[in-house]
From TrEMBL:
Pfam families: N_Asn_amidohyd (PF14736). InterPro entries: NTAN1 (IPR026750). This is Protein N-terminal asparagine amidohydrolase. GO terms for molecular function: protein-N-terminal asparagine amidohydrolase activity. It comes from the Eukaryota. One of its GO terms (cellular component) is nucleus.
Length: 310
């Protein structure tokens, strides 16, 4: 049992965000510091964007990546694990699916990347997950705390901008204050951010979350500098044509865990995902016919991800 809160090793982990903030007011201060940073709009050059049910890890001297980031988190929580000595860092966007495996793999990956650095500790930062009406975020927070508490290495929670601290009320409706964050991999700085460019094959990656396997995928090999997508399969979506015939409000109400507070691009991206599923109902055949990942490499001239040919 190795979760560290406010510098103190814990015998048990907090049951909810309210008890965390009550017992450790320091997290109110660190969340306030994050919220005081102006939101940055990050372009695609040097960005490694992590979608829902994905994680990626890298090191400060990765010449292909400057910023790790994710956004569009309402009930989801963005998780950052970083080793202070080496600067090795992993970021995940978690919706409650595959948390135990994702936490274990992220922690192991950061430890592997930090080998050879005797100094330093592993820090954990959580952002997102507002006080939604159905308490989805609280359940994710609780499961995250338990998963990190089970890891065989001390993990120091340094930031928890979640739940009530990531919530404001407008017109009687609770809204997230921060939808996304970026991490500067060279300095470890974390800041509120939005990312207009979600990286390559975003509709394919999103399709996996609608009808695909309940797992969190590792999408980056920092040793090779390769963004890696798949291979995976998902089930055909019954009635996909009917879904596409519905109006925006219907799609918003039925395909979101937080329809009142989704960012403006939610429905547009969901329609693109539904169209992709209609055109590729069996991705194991039409997309990953050779059962190999799709690899992308950073183009040295443009700074953008381009298909890697082997």
């Amino acid at each position: 049992m190795v979760l560290v809160l406010n510098g103190v090793l814990q015998a048990k982990c907090p049951q909810d965000t309210q008890s965390l903030y009550h017992s450790h007011p320091i997290y109110r201060e660190t969340a306030g510091q994050l919220l005081s940073i102006p939101n940055k709009v990050i372009g695609p050059v040097g960005l490694l964007y992590v979608m829902q049910r994905e994680f990626a890890s890298t090191i400060p001297h990765d010449k292909n990546v400057n910023i790790l980031g994710s956004d569009s988190a309402t009930t989801c929580i963005i998780v950052v694990v970083r080793h202070t000595g080496s600067g090795a860092v992993a970021l995940a966007h978690l919706d409650g699916t595959g948390i135990d495996e994702a936490v274990c793999t992220m922690t192991q990956r950061v430890q592997e990347l930090a080998l050879g650095y005797p100094e330093g500790r592993i820090e954990l930062q959580l952002v997102g997950g507002y006080s939604d009406p159905n308490n989805y975020s609280e359940e994710i927070f609780f499961n995250l705390m338990n998963s990190f508490h089970k890891q065989p290495v001390e993990i120091d929670l340094t930031l928890a901008c979640v739940g009530q601290l990531n919530t404001t009320v407008r017109g009687g409706i609770a809204w997230p204050l921060v939808y996304g964050v970026g991490v500067n991999i060279k300095t470890g700085e974390i800041f509120p951010a939005t990312f207009p460019d979600k990286g390559p094959e975003s509709s394919l990656r999103s399709a996996k979350n609608l009808t695909g396997p309940p797992e969190v995928m590792d999408v980056y090999d920092c040793n090779m500098g390769l963004l890696r997508i798949g291979p995976f399969n998902y089930k055909p979506l019954r009635g996909v044509d009917l879904w596409l015939e519905q109006n925006d409000e219907f799609i918003l109400r039925h395909l979101s865990t937080s329809p009142d507070v989704e960012p403006p691009h939610f429905v547009e991206e969901m329609r693109a995902t539904l169209k992709y599923i209609r055109e590729n109902p069996f991705p194991a055949v039409t997309v990953f016919g050779d059962n190999r990942p799709h690899y992308f490499r950073r183009d040295e001239n443009t700074g953008l991800w381009t298909p890697a040919v082997f």
